[in-house]
Every structure is written in C-alpha cells, then in structure tokens.
Amino acid sequence: MSAPSTTAPTQQVNVSDLELPQLVEVKRQLEEELSHLTSSFAQLKQAQAKFRSCIESAKEVKRENKDKTILVPLTSSLYVPGKLRDAENVIIDVGTGYYVQKTRAQAVKYYEGKIEYIKTNLDALQETIEKKQDNMSYLLNVIQSKLHQSNNKH
C-alpha cells in the first residue's frame, strides 16, 4: 500500500484567462521576483570583482619587497604599514572566518576557481532573468489588451 501524495499537482493557468485584478497581482509578484534576481546578480558581480581584486593582491606580493615596509590592505579603503616577511606565501580568506596559507600561485588558482564558479551561476541567473523579463513583457501585453477591450466596451 503506498502513502498518499502530500503535494497536490500544480495546475497551469493561461494568463490571458485571468481578470485584470489577478493580472495586476501576477505582475506585482513577477516584479518582486525580477527585483530579487537582479539584486542577486549584482551581488554575484560584486563577489566576482572582489575575487579579481584578491588575485591582483596576491600577484603584487613580490620577492623584491621582502623585509620592506609596505601598505597592507585591511579593507578596500584601509591600509596599514607592515613588513613583508614571506614573499612566497599569502593568507587567504576561504569564508566564514577561516583563513589558510597558500603559495601565491595556489591563491591565484583558488580565486580563479571562485570566479569561474560565480560565472557559471551568473550565466544561469542571466538566463532566468531573461525568461522572467519575457514573461513580464507578455504579461504587460495581455494587461494592455484587457484594458483596451475594457475601454472599447464602455
């Protein structure tokens, strides 16, 4: 004996069959989704730029600067003076407050992997955004058509 399914099958509704107030609600929901998706896209782009900056920072560690006083970036706008003791290794942030030591080449490879991972997500997100924009365009056409029909009746 099999257990009854707890999820009801989803029904598809033709948007052109909806009344104007329902269409307006669907439009509002679609606008919220698009807003969230574009915000996520922007955040991923920022993360990608941060990782590119990390690559540049790792590449700037040079042997000729060993034991010289340099400016060490603590944030994107705060630098403190420090001496470079180890020109072969860097400490990288691997997330959630964890840092590991890697060679410069390993650090660059690590961040390149992060950038590529984000690029894959950005591509998928871009595709989703484009589909939602197409849906919005279609929905606006249906709303416009319904308004036109409504105005012609009166």
UniProtKB/TrEMBL annotation:
Coiled coil: 27-64
Entry annotated with the keyword Coiled coil: yes
GO molecular function: unfolded protein binding
One Pfam match: Prefoldin
Gene3D superfamilies in alphabetical order: 1.10.287.370
GO cellular component, one term: prefoldin complex
One GO term of the biological process aspect: RNA polymerase I assembly
InterPro entries per the UniProt record, alphabetical: PFD_alpha_archaea (IPR011599), Prefoldin (IPR009053), Prefoldin_subunit_alpha (IPR004127)
Keyword set, alphabetical order: Chaperone, Coiled coil
Record-stated family: Belongs to the prefoldin subunit alpha family.
Name of this chain's protein: Prefoldin
Species, as recorded: Russula ochroleuca
Phylogenetic placement of the source organism: Eukaryota, Fungi, Dikarya, Basidiomycota, Agaricomycotina
